[in-house]
Amino acid sequence: MTGTASPSSAGVPGRSPPRASGAKAPAANSLGAQAGGGSGGSPPRAGGAKAPAAKSLGAQAGGGSGGSPPRAGGAKAPAAKSLGAQAGGGSRPSGVRGRPPGEAVPPWASTAKAAVLIEALPWLDRFHGKTVVIKYGGHAMADDALRAGFAQDLVFLRYAGLRPVVVHGGGPQITAHLDRLGVPSTFTAGLRVTTPETMDVVRMVLTGQVNRDVVGLVNRYGPFAVGMSGEDANMFTARRRHAVVDGRPVDIGLVGEIHAVDPAAVRALIADGRIPVVSSVARGTGGEVYNVNADTAAAALAVALGAAKLVVLTDVEGLYADWPADGGSDGQPGDVVSLLTATGLEQLLPGLSSGMIPKMEACLRAVRGGVPQAHVLDGRLPHAVLLEIFTDSGIGTMVVPDGAAG
């Protein structure tokens, strides 16, 4: 598709200063190198701010590079005695934080980590107590290291005072289970044809397998995640959806479109300090059970909760200005669009690739429904959620209501 140049994001709440036009998402390796004081080779951000340390943030979220759980009660990791000794010129006790006795800590390493925390300070203040709905999917669900990093991110958000809510799908897992059962997967206009037999498998995989896996992984790092289905307490109510082929509606079975959301059960969990993890299954008014798109479900829930952000994880860096490769002679896609208004996105939607349409439609639905910001992020980047929320330039593509980009 052919897009337009990214409008300036100056003055947009939640992203200051803007990325230079065409700048790509920060590389995890260079970020980690800077966090550790090494020469990562990536240029500094506009305004002289250093690139965020993805590995450093993740390590803090998980309590260390080994992924050990953070301390209960939100207690800080450094020991007061150790800090006092350093302030008074004393030596650091040997073996603190798992380092071998006698191993010195370079001063520049501590300074780099402090810079990351200071950069996060205004965003911690801005989003403290706010709800963030995250649609979890794509490669971030398949890679073990990314799965662990995502779980750490959620617990980090919770300890930092935010209120994360997760909505997930599970298309690859559903297809794999149907294959094991010898049931063919059929798609029409990009939507899974869902017979009653297929719906049984969809329901079992999303709620009984994928949901439990996500909940269990998050709870390794902090006892907060609670699994739910969109059926629970009539959270999602859907109507049958038809695919459109050559301009004509086609019946594709038990595929639904959400038309009502009751967030009371999710609000109760949030108020109790929990992290709701919701599978994208919905009830019908006649007792039917529907398979619903997880992007759409996440947007609908974000609107109902009055969330401060919707974050959609995918397998690309964001929305490209030229796709698949219109803008480059080397066969690569063009620049990532950093910022779009709702009207700008609406104009681009007809030319988007089929895989991006539901994600960008979800962002449009969210901001048109009152969510201040909606983001599409590359879930292949470790700790992408933290990088978007707690760094000055952010990553991916952000969609804002009309008038917010001025």
What low-confidence regions span 5 or more consecutive residues with pLDDT below 50?
1-96, 325-329
Q: How would you name the CATH homologous superfamily of the largest domain?
A: Acetylglutamate kinase-like
Strand content: 15-25%
User: Roughly what is the average pLDDT, rounded to an integer?
Assistant: 79
The assigned CATH architecture of the largest domain is 3-Layer(aba) Sandwich
Number of strands: 14
The termini sit apart by 25 Å
- Might you state the CATH topology name of the largest domain? Carbamate kinase
CATH class of the largest domain: Alpha Beta
The level of helicity is 25-40%
| Number of separate structural domains | 2
Walkthrough of the structure:
- The protein is an alpha/beta fold and 406 residues long.
- It folds into two domains: 29-64 and 108-118, no CATH class; 129-400, Acetylglutamate kinase-like (Carbamate kinase), CATH 3.40.1160.10.
- The chain is 35% helix and 19% strand.
- The protein contains twelve helices and 14 strands.
- The protein has an eight-stranded mixed β-sheet with strand order 5-8-2-1-11-13-14-12, with helices on both faces.
- It starts with 27 loop residues before the first helix and ends in a 6-residue tail after the last strand.
